[in-house]
């Protein structure tokens, strides 16, 4: 018999992640080939635009892993929108990912009211659309070949 729990347990969460990674490596030659390389590690990547007073004008938070850049968040303060900051942050993240970390692809998820058009303008293609995530909203997954 098994006991099912829903409590948050950081140690079990880390164990679960490790066990799944081991199983994935065993099943996938591509993941086995990453073992021991820099690309195997999920490495944070952040790019910031600071205003003259030091306040945050825009920021990009992501990570690189397995030759991919994953943009988690890209935000530009209202008063700085339209000045190209988002484009500059994205370009810098892509440059670091390509030139310094050996990434060849990039991916991002965005909602229909956010920035799918922005990413398309920067060479990203829609590869998936999830309707009603959250309800009434479409989530887009977009990818781009770097370089």
From TrEMBL:
Residues spanning the membrane: none
PROSITE patterns on file: GNAT
Write down the superkingdom of origin: Bacteria
SUPFAM superfamilies the record matches: Acyl-CoA N-acyltransferases (Nat) (SSF55729)
Matching entries from CDD domains are given as: NAT_SF
One Pfam annotation reads Acetyltransf_1
Coiled-coil residue spans: none
Q: Which residues form the N-acetyltransferase domain?
A: 1-147
Q: What is this protein called?
A: GNAT family N-acetyltransferase
């Amino acid at each position: 018999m098994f006991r099912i729990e829903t409590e948050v347990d950081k140690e079990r969460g880390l164990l679960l992640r490790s066990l799944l990674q081991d199983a994935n490596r065993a099943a996938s030659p591509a993941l086995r080939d990453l073992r021991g390389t820099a690309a195997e590690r999920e490495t944070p990547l952040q790019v910031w635009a600071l205003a003259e007073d030091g306040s945050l004008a825009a920021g990009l938070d992501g990570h690189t892993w397995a030759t991919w850049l994953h943009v988690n968040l890209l935000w530009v303060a209202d008063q700085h929108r339209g000045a190209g900051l988002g484009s500059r942050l994205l370009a810098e993240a892509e440059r670091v990912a390509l030139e310094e970390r050996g990434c060849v692809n990039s991916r991002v998820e965005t909602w229909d009211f956010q920035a799918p058009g922005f990413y398309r303008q920067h060479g990203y293609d829609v590869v998936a659309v999830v309707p009603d995530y959250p309800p009434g909203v479409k989530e887009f997954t977009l990818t781009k070949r770097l370089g």
